[in-house]
């Protein structure tokens, strides 16, 4: 049995569609602000593998709640990973492009230097480091710009704003890769199966949609696929002030996952088409 932390989030919802036989723990049964309770669930339920799909993902709010974000994004996965080490079962975890500072213009490789520039990124990096130190057989997928028909994300924000506006200003100097939550769920299940069958994970992997794009062009693609005439005006990050600073270059180099687990990075445009179909049906 695969145990999943998270039930309502984007990736958890897609895992539930692809693997309804897995066991899903929502906030009611496993609150990540209580790391020991999460570990206790693993010891009690004795799963064959654990996937952590729950996290504190409110990037701007994390600036004023960094302590809570750190408990949820670092202490809880650390406790889960230690329980997995004790049970000798694989632990799969998700992290983010926001562990990088966004410098340069090349895709980041898994062992490139990390240097988060916001509280959410720091909390996720602390989680990576704690999981790596846990002694568990673990795989961490760093992904980026996740979208789906469920939960909150940029695609749904754009469609909501387009309902009342015929023009939107969107930052055009942050480059990254939109990633369909469904593809992340499928990748996690494939990695879990391969690790259960004995494939060793080398730790941190990158997994994001191709090709890279900036947020303004992503917004244009969303409106085009949704048959909306909403205009997108390119703006600089400096013209869209937010509490948390975002990295300018978020591209992820995804080859290791293909080499080790035969998993290809997804094409975000076909994923976007499916999500818009789901949302407009
Ligand atoms: N969203 C993105 O763009 C990206 C996400 N990631 C990472 O991918 C993973 C999955 O993200 P995604 O599916 O988008 O996340 P969502 O924001 O869609 O969902 C987060 C989930 O975590 C749950 N959660 C939050 N706080 C707690 C808590 N204290 N106890 C229990 N559950 C809690 C939420 O439950 P509830 O509904 O009850 O609040 C929700 O199910 C995370 O690790 C995230 O850091 C990485 C890169 C990009
Ligand atoms: C709504 C809006 C946003 N923006 C900008 C702000 C920001 O730079 C960018 C995207 O906005 P969001 O709030 O969706 O971005 P954000 O919440 O920072 O998204 C991040 O979430 C976390 C969880 C991750 O791990 C990252 O990979 C990334 O997906 O678009 C505009 O320029 N115009 C707008 O009208
Ligand atoms: Mg957000």
Describe the protein in words.
The chain is an alpha/beta fold and 281 residues long. It has one domain: NAD(P)-binding Rossmann-like Domain (Rossmann fold, 3-Layer(aba) Sandwich). Helices cover 40% and strands 16% of the residues. The chain contains 9 helices and 12 strands. It has helices spanning 10-18, 35-45, 66-87, 119-132, 154-162, 181-196, 215-225, 255-261, 268-280; strands at residues 2-5, 23-25, 49-52, 91-96, 138-143, 146-147, 167-171, 175-176, 179-180, 204-206, 213-214, 231-235. A 6-stranded parallel beta sheet has the order 2-1-3-4-5-10, sandwiched between helices. It has a two-stranded parallel ribbon with strand order 6-9. Strand 3, helix 3 (66-87) and strand 4 (91-96) form a beta-alpha-beta unit. Catalyzes the reduction of dTDP-6-deoxy-L-lyxo-4-hexulose to yield dTDP-L-rhamnose. It is an enzyme of class 1 (oxidoreductase). This is dTDP-4-dehydrorhamnose reductase.
């Amino acid at each position: 049995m695969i145990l999943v932390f998270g039930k309502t989030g984007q990736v958890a919802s897609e895992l539930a569609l692809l693997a309804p036989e897995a066991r899903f723990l929502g906030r009611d049964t496993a609150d990540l602000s209580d790391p020991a309770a999460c570990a206790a669930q693993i010891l009690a339920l004795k799963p064959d593998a654990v996937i952590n799909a729950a996290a504190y993902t409110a990037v701007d709010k994390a600036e004023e709640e960094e302590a809570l974000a750190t408990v949820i994004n670092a202490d809880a996965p650390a406790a889960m990973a230690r329980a997995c080490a004790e049970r000798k079962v694989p632990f799969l975890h998700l992290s983010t492009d926001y562990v990088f500072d966004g410098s340069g213009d090349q895709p980041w490789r898994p062992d490139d230097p990390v240097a988060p520039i916001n509280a959410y990124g720091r909390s996720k990096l602390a989680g990576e480091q704690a999981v790596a130190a846990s002694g568990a057989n673990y795989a961490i997928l760093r992904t980026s710009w996740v979208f789906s028909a469920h939960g909150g994300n940029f695609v749904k924000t754009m469609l909501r704003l387009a309902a009342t506006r015929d023009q939107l200003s969107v930052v055009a100097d942050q480059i990254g890769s939109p990633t369909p939550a469904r593809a992340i769920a499928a990748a996690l299940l494939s990695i879990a199966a391969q690790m259960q069958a004995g494939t060793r994970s080398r730790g941190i992997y990158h997994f994001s949609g191709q090709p890279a794009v900036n947020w303004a062009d992503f917004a244009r693609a969303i409106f085009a696929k949704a048959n909306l005439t909403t205009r997108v005006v390119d703006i600089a990050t400096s013209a869209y002030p937010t509490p948390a600073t975002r990295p300018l270059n978020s591209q992820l180099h995804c080859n290791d996952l293909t080499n080790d687990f035969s998993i290809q990075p997804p094409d975000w445009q076909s994923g976007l088409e499916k999500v818009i179909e789901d949302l407009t049906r």
